[in-house]
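User: My collaborator and I are trying to settle a disagreement about how two of our proteins should look. Neither of us wants to argue from intuition anymore, so we agreed to look at predicted structures for both before our next call. Could you fold the first one, then the second, and keep them clearly separated?

Assistant: That sounds like a sensible way to settle it. I'll keep them separate. The first protein:
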Amino acid sequence: MTSHTYRLLFSLNLGFIIIASLIPSSMPSLWNLDKVGHFAAYASLFTMAQFAFPATATRVKIFFLAVGLGIMLEWLQSFVPGRETSALDAIANTIGLLFGILLYRFLKSFL
């Protein structure tokens, strides 16, 4: 795949995270399983970012912007019906970003 394809996938993933974070919800969280979704979404986001943007400085900026985005989206959820702010969700987002580093290295060895 080309970097343009990875950038498209990164953009779609980013859009999905923003939309999914801000749509109203009426479903209760079962045993905090939503943390798995947060982890997976942000892990895939940063994995795609690393394929899309080869420069290390760019990756570092994206990492910290994604941490900020996760925190901001959690805060914005306090204004969305059926949603609530959760520090644990923000932590799951950040751990997902860190795992994305490992996932990228693993996948890169095969691609």
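The second protein, kept apart from the first:
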Amino acid sequence: MSHPVTYREHARSVLALGVPLIGGNVAQFAITLTDTVMLGWYDVGALAGNVLGAMVFFVLFIFGAGFALAVMPAVAAAEAEEDARQVRRVTRMGLWASLAFGLACLPVFLFAEPILGLMGQEPDVAELAAQYLGIAGWGIVFALTGMVLKSYLSARERTGIVLWGTVAAALANAVVNYALIFGNWGAPEMGIRGAAIASLVVQVVLLGALVFYILIVTPEHHLFRRFWRPDPEALGQVIRVGLPIGLTTLAEVSLFAASSVMMGWLGKVPLAAHGIALNIASLAFMLHMGLSSAATVRAGRAVGRRDRDGLRRGALVVVALSGVAAVMTVVLFLTIPGWLVGLFLDPDDPQREAVLAVGIALMAAAALFQLVDAAQVIALGLLRGVQDTKVPMLIAALAYWVVGVPVSYGLGFVAGMNGVGVWLGLAVGLAVAAGLLMWRFFAVSMARAF
């Protein structure tokens, strides 16, 4: 009889899986971060347009990514049961669902300017955001299908290609950005449109690399053979699990998107500062996203093995690891906020000091929600691992839209706290979500998984 896996062994397994996933998430985020840094050095107006355009892209991307995230626990459980056919079925239908959703998003990107105008954004910022989305928006099809393949490989614990492929894509994005935003090396100076072209090229190349790897190195599941054949049962499973995941994530991301819209009402400088502070906070969040994905895979495999004790121990370990990482980011945000925000700004920009002042205040607010933001995403990862997605969707809608958005608006505009008030509202919404989701997993879902 095998002995129960110790907490130390669980920690080692979580980190072995989670560290490459964290690296891959950081590298993926570096694509957006590079756009923000270089456009911030190019022009504050272009930065504000990018903040708005990237927000619209990300909201729709994260909704559609629910189908890819549904693939991960299903593949992990099927792998534990050694069911290769089920692995192939859910991955293919995940690709189908993602492809269809990506194509459905294109009209939003192509007609972004009037949509943003109706949201109360300044005309010049809306025009720049529309220029970005008119090019970068086409990349959503490649980004979503690539996300499915990353989920498939992660569930099979083949995270090396996910990490190194994304690192190469981030480096390529930086090179193309440097050439096309500023007009270096004989390239045309394209500003925000140059950043959009770089993002699109990188999404296409990364998807190609993942497909090549699967065909050459891991061909055993024959993912692309007779790809056109429908599988209604597997497609239904992906949609049933993936749609609530997408809506749950959308509820959280749209909370931050709503904060971007509210910051836009305050003007270009607060919006630019918000974009910088949000990028820094999001970079720290990539740590917890990687651990959350590792939690999904480990929980899915525990369910496939019918290992109740392993599920509980693994959950406690990943919560502890994420908590340690969150405390470290709080220290950074409170001790060196000016240095962090200053990295995104040209030293000679006349608006630098104004953006810096707002950004430092926002970093203090960001420090407040690090622990609760980490807790809610870890809880979601565990819940996905046991394929409990419908009730978490309702919890997210309650926490972010019934609590978070009204509190953000009330503190920011009614109480006159401006940007800091908007961010304090984010912290309240995240805290409510963290508490309810953790309770859901440990008190309800873990017992129902077997």
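Some points you might bring to the call about the second protein. The chain has one domain: 7-448. The chain has a mean pLDDT of 88.
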